[in-house]
């Protein structure tokens, strides 16, 4: 068992990963995204809703949230170049996780901030400060082809070459800077290397805004599903860094 929670479960049998998801649309979106993404993705072995079987990708994950990273600056730059290639691709038909409207995000963010303070999960001043930082991400954006859940553990490399990007269930049209922020969440020191490979002008205030917003929005879900956002280097530490 790789991961299991109320939304989906992923199991590994040898070099095959079996994903089971009750949301048929999400599985179908993942298959569509992998087929059209211009970057290395897992091979789809078979697809019979609610299950999807994919082959393991070669290489090693770029890193993991809360753990030291050993990947080179060149590896981060290669990851940035792969993300740029994705963002420059033709738009997919669906809105992705990074495609929610500013109004939807603001309402969800305010609700989660209230929950964090009311339930004593985080100090009010920490929530307030990060809510201010998150505002930078709440602005108009030009939609691109986004991965939508580009965690550091979802990018695989062999040396300095990207060999695969996994977990496309949240892919679709969205804000490209969201992908860059999720990839560097908890590993902020590597943002410069990532952006060097990505190229172009990147608004770092928006990236910082997404770091705060992603962490504020995730903590409630993580706590309820048995994950620990208070672990060293994880979401709560990301919020504390903004102080």
From TrEMBL:
Gene3D superfamilies: 3.90.1200.10. Transmembrane segments: none annotated. SUPFAM superfamilies: Protein kinase-like (PK-like). Keywords: Transferase. It comes from the Bacteria. InterPro entries: AGP_Transferase, Aminoglycoside_PTrfase, Kinase-like_dom_sf. This is Phosphotransferase family enzyme. It comes from Nonomuraea fuscirosea.
């Amino acid at each position: 068992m790789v991961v299991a929670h109320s939304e989906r479960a992923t199991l590994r049998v040898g070099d095959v990963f079996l994903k089971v998801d009750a949301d048929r649309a999400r599985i179908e979106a993942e298959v569509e995204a992998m087929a059209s993404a211009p970057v290395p993705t897992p091979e789809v072995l078979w697809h019979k809703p609610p299950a999807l079987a994919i082959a393991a990708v070669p290489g090693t994950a770029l890193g993991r949230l809360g753990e030291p990273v050993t990947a080179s600056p060149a590896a981060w730059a290669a990851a940035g170049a792969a993300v740029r290639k994705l963002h420059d691709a033709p738009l997919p038909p669906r809105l992705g996780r990074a495609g929610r409207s500013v109004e939807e995000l603001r309402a969800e963010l305010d609700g989660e901030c209230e929950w964090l303070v009311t339930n004593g999960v985080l100090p009010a001043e920490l929530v307030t400060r990060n809510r201010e930082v998150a505002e930078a991400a709440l602005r108009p954006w030009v939609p691109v082809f986004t991965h939508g859940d580009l965690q550091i553990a979802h990018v695989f490399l062999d040396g300095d070459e990207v060999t695969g990007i996994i977990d496309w269930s949240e892919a679709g049209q969205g804000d490209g800077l969201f992908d860059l922020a999720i990839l560097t969440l908890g590993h902020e020191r590597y943002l410069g290397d990532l952006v060097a490979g990505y190229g172009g002008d990147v608004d770092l205030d928006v990236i910082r805004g997404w770091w705060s917003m992603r962490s504020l929005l995730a903590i409630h879900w993580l706590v309820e599903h048995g994950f620990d956002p208070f672990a060293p280097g994880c979401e709560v530490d990301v919020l504390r860094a903004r102080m």
